[in-house]
Specification:
Blueprint: H1 3-11, H2 27-45
Length: 48
């Protein structure tokens, strides 16, 4: 799987307020992580 494909998959993930992430992670923290990771994968696939 290429970084571009992974970035696209990550962009399609939607976490509702009723999501129950494992551990001590809040939904907001998980969303922030996913956004940052997706950004990094996009930059790897499509460098500025």
């Amino acid at each position: 799987m290429s970084p571009g494909q992974l970035a696209w998959i990550l962009s399609e993930i939607e976490l509702g307020e009723d999501a129950d992430p494992p551990g001590e992670v809040s939904v907001q923290e998980l969303r922030a992580f996913l956004r940052q990771f997706q950004k990094e994968m996009s930059e790897l696939a499509f460098p500025p």
